[in-house]
């Protein structure tokens, strides 16, 4: 059964000047279509500003689409928004969106009331949710004393308060430390055991690889690829990734490497004092000398060869060249 | 009812952190009361202490509604909770209405504190002749001002420029509604403005209930006016809420602050 059916959805934003005249119009979501099966965890991946959050906001009835249509469990997101609100829930990344003077439990209780859940059912469910998100011991402390990870867990708790059929999670691990993010991924996996349909947006590829059954990559509002994580990895099957860790390389040298005929793509990551140059190569023979020739005055810490990952496929798709 | 109480509880818990709210609900009404009682002759004070307490109490109610309801949607937007509450099955007008009622009932704090101030520091007649009607009119006043608060909330949400008028709207309402002195001493052209404000009828109704209702027909007419104006306020606010929600969903301003 199809839980989420998106058909040629478009969202345009209009900027007007002080006199109300149209100044600028841009398309944040451009004719996207996808379907999510019931009980599936679907990942919507893309760089910042790609249109992920706009898509989620339309599907959660918070934003009207400019064109196209979408159904959640058979209900239209425009005509049946009231019915949809009863069967879905959502979270947005970041630590806003909670009442910081209230305790975690009171926040959940407040949203339970707003979702019309009778008190006796709500109290029982809140206790279950707090256990699921490992917040049962800190539930009666004020949100203002929580860490980012704890706030994010309460957000997930809020997203479960009405026992929704479909949950939208917009970058839930954004800004979390590795331990907090890992813990949250554990909770997200548990949602599948509860037979929830989940739409997750993220730009952490390993997270999508770990959690999602199906993935769509969105760039400039358009879906540029979709399929299972393994299918997307096949896009870079015949490539090799070379990672070179260096200190103090300048842009000129990076451009020289980029221009080498065997380099398909290049990414530079800065890690503390050093930079990691990721080279996506068409061929691997006799290349090291040519690269080292360019890096002759640069301190090279490490060179390693590795197999392409989903992140590499993603980089190839979105065409990134820097972090 | 649980839902309404829950909304009111969250509203009050979040508002008590605002020093502005504390000033308008607690300090300002007491200052107003002390000032008014000092201005009055001792002989007049004997009779009109309760009237001054009513003025101080309703001043706290109006200020709480103006400064709280006026910014309620905007505050939720700033906290990042507006999208969360709009995405709930409970309609936004109901949530803001609950918040507005909480803001209105905060006026009871102003009235109680004013009463205690007068009791401790001033002599005077501190009794209510007709307690039943006093409670009815007080509740009607709070509900009516809360519905006016819903209009203010939507207007200030639709137009950010209108928010600048918030400070300017406090004292003129005190004058126009006769909180400070009877509206009969104001110029005649101000009268229509006074009459469309339910507080004008409400404050007079409260005074009648405190001093003793001499003319019941006149008193009931005041109650009728409060009820009618409240219905008008609610109809206007319902229309404005539809506009606000549609505009926000169209222009994507729910999460923008």
TrEMBL record, chain A:
<keyword id="KW-0067">ATP-binding</keyword>
<dbReference type="GO" id="GO:0005524">
    <property type="term" value="F:ATP binding"/>
</dbReference>
<protein>
    <submittedName>
        <fullName>ABC-2 type transport system ATP-binding protein</fullName>
    </submittedName>
</protein>
<keyword id="KW-0813">Transport</keyword>
<feature type="domain" description="ABC transporter">
    <location>
        <begin position="4"/>
        <end position="245"/>
    </location>
</feature>
<dbReference type="InterPro" id="IPR027417">
    <property type="entry name" value="P-loop_NTPase"/>
</dbReference>
<dbReference type="InterPro" id="IPR050763">
    <property type="entry name" value="ABC_transporter_ATP-binding"/>
</dbReference>
<dbReference type="Pfam" id="PF00005">
    <property type="entry name" value="ABC_tran"/>
</dbReference>
<dbReference type="InterPro" id="IPR003439">
    <property type="entry name" value="ABC_transporter-like_ATP-bd"/>
</dbReference>
<dbReference type="GO" id="GO:0016887">
    <property type="term" value="F:ATP hydrolysis activity"/>
</dbReference>
<keyword id="KW-0547">Nucleotide-binding</keyword>
<dbReference type="InterPro" id="IPR003593">
    <property type="entry name" value="AAA+_ATPase"/>
</dbReference>
UniProtKB/TrEMBL annotation, chain B:
<feature type="transmembrane region" description="Helical">
    <location>
        <begin position="171"/>
        <end position="189"/>
    </location>
</feature>
<keyword id="KW-0812">Transmembrane</keyword>
<dbReference type="InterPro" id="IPR051784">
    <property type="entry name" value="Nod_factor_ABC_transporter"/>
</dbReference>
<feature type="transmembrane region" description="Helical">
    <location>
        <begin position="21"/>
        <end position="42"/>
    </location>
</feature>
<feature type="transmembrane region" description="Helical">
    <location>
        <begin position="220"/>
        <end position="242"/>
    </location>
</feature>
<feature type="transmembrane region" description="Helical">
    <location>
        <begin position="131"/>
        <end position="159"/>
    </location>
</feature>
<keyword id="KW-1133">Transmembrane helix</keyword>
<dbReference type="InterPro" id="IPR000412">
    <property type="entry name" value="ABC_2_transport"/>
</dbReference>
<keyword id="KW-1003">Cell membrane</keyword>
<feature type="domain" description="ABC transmembrane type-2">
    <location>
        <begin position="20"/>
        <end position="244"/>
    </location>
</feature>
<feature type="transmembrane region" description="Helical">
    <location>
        <begin position="48"/>
        <end position="67"/>
    </location>
</feature>
<comment type="similarity">
    <text>Belongs to the ABC-2 integral membrane protein family.</text>
</comment>
<dbReference type="InterPro" id="IPR013525">
    <property type="entry name" value="ABC2_TM"/>
</dbReference>
<protein>
    <recommendedName>
        <fullName>Transport permease protein</fullName>
    </recommendedName>
</protein>
<dbReference type="Pfam" id="PF01061">
    <property type="entry name" value="ABC2_membrane"/>
</dbReference>
<dbReference type="GO" id="GO:0140359">
    <property type="term" value="F:ABC-type transporter activity"/>
</dbReference>
<feature type="transmembrane region" description="Helical">
    <location>
        <begin position="102"/>
        <end position="122"/>
    </location>
</feature>
<dbReference type="GO" id="GO:0043190">
    <property type="term" value="C:ATP-binding cassette (ABC) transporter complex"/>
</dbReference>
<keyword id="KW-0813">Transport</keyword>
<dbReference type="InterPro" id="IPR047817">
    <property type="entry name" value="ABC2_TM_bact-type"/>
</dbReference>
<keyword id="KW-0472">Membrane</keyword>
């Amino acid at each position: 059964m199809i839980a989420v059916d998106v058909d040629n959805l478009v969202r345009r934003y209009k900027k007007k000047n002080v006199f109300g005249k149209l100044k600028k119009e841009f398309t944040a979501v451009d004719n996207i279509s996808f379907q999510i099966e019931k009980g599936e965890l679907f990942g919507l991946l893309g760089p910042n500003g790609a249109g992920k959050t706009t898509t989620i906001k339309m599907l959660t009835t918070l934003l009207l689409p400019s064109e196209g249509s979408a159904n959640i469990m058979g209900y239209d997101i425009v005509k049946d928004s009231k019915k949809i609100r009863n069967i879905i829930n959502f979270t947005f990344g970041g630590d806003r969106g909670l009442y910081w003077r209230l305790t975690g439990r009171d926040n959940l209780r407040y949203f339970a009331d707003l979702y019309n859940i009778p008190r006796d059912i709500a109290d029982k469910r809140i206790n279950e949710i707090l256990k699921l998100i490992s917040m049962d011991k800190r539930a009666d402390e004020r949100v203002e004393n929580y860490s980012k990870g704890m706030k994010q867990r309460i957000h997930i708790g809020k997203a479960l308060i009405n026992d929704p059929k479909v949950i939208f999670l917009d970058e839930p691990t954004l800004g979390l430390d590795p331990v907090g993010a890992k813990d949250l991924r554990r909770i997200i996996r548990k949602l599948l055991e509860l037979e929830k349909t989940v739409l997750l947006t993220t730009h952490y590829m390993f997270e999508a690889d770990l959690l999602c059954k199906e993935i769509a990559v969105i760039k400039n509002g358009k879906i540029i690829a979709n399929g299972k994580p393994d299918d997307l990895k096949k896009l870079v099957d015949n490539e090799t990734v070379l990672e070179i860790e260096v200190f103090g390389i300048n842009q000129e040298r990076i451009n020289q490497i980029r221009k080498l005929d065997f380099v398909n793509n290049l990414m530079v990551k800065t890690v503390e004092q050093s930079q990691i140059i990721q080279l996506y190569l068409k061929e691997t023979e006799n290349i090291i000398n040519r690269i080292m020739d360019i890096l002759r005055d640069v301190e090279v810490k490490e060179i390693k060869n590795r197999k392409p990952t989903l992140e590499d496929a993603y980089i190839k798709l979105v065409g990134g060249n820097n972090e | 009812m649980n839902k309404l109480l829950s909304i009111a509880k969250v509203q009050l818990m979040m508002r008590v952190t605002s020093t502005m709210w504390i000033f308008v609900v607690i300090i300002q009404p007491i200052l107003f009361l002390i000032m008014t009682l000092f201005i009055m002759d001792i002989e007049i004070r004997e009779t009109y202490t309760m009237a001054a307490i009513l003025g101080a109490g309703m001043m706290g109610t109006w200020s709480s509604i103006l400064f709280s309801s006026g910014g309620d949607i905007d505050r939720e937007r700033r906290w990042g909770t507006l999208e969360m509450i709009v995405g709930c099955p409970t309609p936004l007008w109901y949530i803001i209405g609950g918040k507005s009622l909480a803001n209105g009932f905060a006026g009871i704090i102003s009235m109680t504190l004013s009463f205690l101030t007068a009791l401790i520091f001033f002599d005077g007649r501190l009794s209510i002749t007709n307690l039943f009607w006093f409670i009815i009119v007080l509740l009607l006043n709070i509900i009516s001002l809360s519905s006016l608060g819903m209009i203010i909330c939507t207007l200030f949400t639709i137009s950010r420029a209108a928010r600048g008028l918030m400070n300017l709207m406090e004292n003129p309402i005190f004058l126009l509604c006769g909180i400070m002195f009877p509206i009969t001493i104001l110029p005649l052209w101000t009268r229509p403005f006074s009459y469309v404000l339910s507080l004008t009828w409400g404050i007079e109704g409260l005074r009648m209930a405190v001093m003793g209702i001499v003319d019941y027909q006149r008193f009931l007419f005041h109650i009728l006016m409060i009820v009618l104006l409240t219905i008008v306020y609610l109809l206007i606010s319902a229309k404005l809420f539809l506009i606000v929600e549609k505009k926000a969903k169209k222009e994507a301003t729910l999460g923008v602050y």
